[in-house]
Amino acid sequence: MTATSEALLITSQEGAVRTLTLNRPAALNAFTTALLVQLREALEAAAQDAGVRCVVITGAGRGFSAGQDLSDALIKPPMEPGEVPKDIGHLLDNYYIPLALRLRSMPVPVIAAVNGVAAGAGASLALGCDLVLAAEGASFIQAFSKIGLVPDCGGTWLLPRLVGRAKALELALLGDKLPAAEAARIGLIYRALPDAELAAEAQALAQKLAAMPVKAIAATRQALDDALLLDFESALKNEALLQSRLGFAVDYQEGTRAFLEKRKPNFSDR
Ligand code: T3D
Hints:
Layout (H helix, E strand, L loop, with lengths): L1 E2 L5 E6 L2 E6 L10 H16 L5 E6 L3 E3 L22 H17 L5 E5 L2 E3 L1 H7 L3 E5 L3 E3 L13 H9 L1 H10 L2 E3 H6 L5 E3 L4 H13 L3 H14 L4 H16 L2 H11 L10
Parallel strand pairs: 3-4, 4-6, 5-7, 6-8, 7-9, 8-11
Antiparallel strand pairs: 1-2, 2-3, 9-10
Helix pairs in contact: 1-2, 4-5, 8-9
């Protein structure tokens, strides 16, 4: 296990699975700019490392992430007379957008193991992952409206696509706490499971995905995201393009050869 400077983020590896643990438990892993940078850099490092075939993001302590650290000097509202408000858009441009884009284009699957409350940008980060597992004690809160903001870090894009416009509006406007089991029931996340089982189940799922053809998994994520913006014929053509590329990749050769030879495939491409 390695800890980055200040240990805001803990990086560990088991086989081909890299786990990134947000580590500001006293503040429910709220994002400072330093943590946002470290998380993006850690994702970049995982993307570049051929030994990583799946990434798990989780939180230390009782929270997953309470979103933006509201005491961060970069965004803190005027507290004294004469101080002027800061442009929050800079924070998004420079920190959240690069992070969200890095996450969404990872060459390997990414699992969120939501161990506790995921609020604001913490919820958006979790929902931006490919599969979201959550402890039954965890919850999701679209906290933005409570402080006069819109969902960010991809929230406005993700929410209606995951649960439809009506439910997205309910969650985003009211900002109520959504328990993990209810999040799973409405299709916002993949699964809710007993708190004590979360870490082991996330690791088991990650190991399973790591043994799969991850190049095809990343292409599948891309194809599904693309398809939401395409008409039917364009989606068919996009599938053909991706299939054509994947057909030349070693994993497809290995997968079909293994099937024909009645043996377990050994996927290695990325
Ligand atoms: O400018 C911008 O904001 C731009 C970016 C926006 C992206 C966003 O993420 S906006 C949304 C920001 N997040 C929030 O508004 C959530 C704020 N937190 C809460 O509402 C509650 O903490 C929770 C519902 C998440 C959890 O409640 P609870 O009762 O379990 O815990 P708590 O006692 O409120 O918090 C525990 C500690 O964490 C506490 O510190 P203390 O008093 O023990 O020293 C609390 O201040 C700290 N904490 C929680 N959330 C944040 C935070 N500190 C800084 N920033 C936070 N977001």
